[in-house]
Every structure is written in structure tokens, then in C-alpha cells.
Amino acid sequence: MKLTDKFSEGETLFAFELLPPLKGDKIDTLYNSIDALREYSPSYINITYHREEIKLIERENGLLERQVVRKRPGTVGISAAIQGRYGIDVVPHLICGGFSAMDTEDALIEMNFLGIDNVLALRGDNVRGEHSFRQVEGGHTHASELVSQIKDLNAGKYLSGEVQNPTPTDFCIGVAGYPEKHAESPNMTSDIARLKEKVEAGAHYIVTQMFFDNSRFFDFEKKCRQEGITVPIIPGIKPFSTKAQLHILPEVFGVNIPEELVSEVEKATDKAAVRRVGELWAIQQCRELKKHGVPALHFYTMSRADNVAEVVKNVF
Predict the structure, then answer these.
(1) Do 12 and 295 contact (CB within 8 A), yes or no?
(2) 217 vs 63, higher pLDDT
(3) Which of 80, 83, 258, 307 is least enclosed, having the fewest CB within 10 Å?
(4) Domains of the chain, with CATH numbers?
């Protein structure tokens, strides 16, 4: 079922995001996370996609050889397995990084065959160690281009003009939004302009980066509406869980940690106390957002379900 059809039902939905297991690990870790959250009736589950990494391997002659490594493969297969096992709609992520347009079309065809109706279209991160995004040959540079390709496929336009009697797909397309702007954007005005390009290219809804100050989300939503962006906007929530995240989250995700939250975390005497601070903060956030009438709450689990479960049972 398309997410936009779910959003139209009126009530705030519960959804969460999982990471594929590391290469060589079992899928059971994902199933355990889903089992811990299943009783709260998740409406859908997002499965992330992680691009390749480059390792430099020193050879016997002293020269360095670049080696491509994929640490978390299997997004499409995992999505199909979850949807088949639990009967819960899935939203596999699809990224520009590491994909040619033909790779993208093949992945979309597989998703369509597997009965997957939704996809989240992202540019993806830079290759680790590189300061700017680099597309692969025949690939996309911007998420708006990826959205356009999916929209074309929804209209039956395949890359090869030789396809006879093409069957159109019918994907519901999501994109990312940044209440505190993308790290590469010079300012919020420019960032919302790029977001509008993605919507005009064919995106049906927006899911945001995590944030810890609801006023940032409300301001972002207001600016989007002022710029003519009318699609549903889904807030992304991450329950704070460790003191290390005081530094990691701003550095990696470019998010602001409110002074009050920082103070409460720093006062916590052990890991359990830190996690409880994070849970209470997220509960407060979610209750306010739910009262505001957001279509869904999207939880970033980082494949840990216990603190999300604690938040959800106090909100839904």
C-alpha cells in the first residue's frame, strides 16, 4: 500500500528505520528489532542502503591498491523478506551514490516484481574520505534526478527505447528534508529550494533528518508551505542514548542539541540514566508533534529497538 494512502487516513502513524546487517551477519538481528516493536502496530518499515567504501590495501611491492567494499548489502532482499514475513509495508532506500541509471532501473524492476510499492530516493553520502559527492559513470548527481527516473518508470518510460508494450510501475516516492539544512547547503533558503526541486520532480512525501528541537521542525514546515511545498512532511525522531552522541550526532548529521538536553545528559551518572533522559525527551517531542497532527513519526532506531519501544508505548 502506498504511504500517501496511509497518510490520508488521518491519524499519526508509527514507523521506523532499520540498517541492513553487516556482511556475514544473520538477518535475525533485524527480526528481533521488528519483534520488539511489532506490538505497537508499525505502519511501515524503512530499510537503509549504504554505498560502497574504499579501502587502500598495501601490496608486497609497497604500492597501494584501491579496493571497493560493501559492508551492508541486501536492502531489496531484506525488504522483501520483511514484507513477506510480517505483512508490513516496507520502504527500501535507493541512492545515487554507487549506482548507474541502469542499476537503478534494475533495482526498481526487482522491487516492483516483489510487490514493493514505496521507495525513498536519496543522493547518499560521499565516499568516506572524499570531500565532495562523486557520481558513478552513467549515474545521478542529485536526488531530484533519481526521483525523475522513478517518475518516468511510473509512466512506463524505461531507459531502453526498445521495450515493447512497457508496463508502468506505481511507486510512491519519498525524499529527505533537513529542518536544520543539509550540511552542504549554504543556507536554509537554498536548501528548501533544492527540496522543492525534488518535489517538482515527482516526490510524494518528505521525511526529515532527526532533530531534537521541535521548533526547528515547525519553522521548517512553515517555510516549506510558504514555498509551495504541499506534500506530507514526516518528522524523523532519534531517542538520545549515549553521552558520546553529544559529539557524534552534530558532527555526523549536522543537528543541534538543545542546551537543556545537553545539561540533562551531562548530569546523568550512568548509561541507563542517559538513555532515560533520551527517552523522556523523545516522548515529549513526539507528544507535541502528534498533537500538531503530523502524518507519521519516523524513528531512527540504528537497529536498537528497546528505547524506541519505550517511547512508542508512551505516545501511541
Answers:
(1) yes
(2) 217
(3) 258
(4) 3-313 (3.20.20.220)
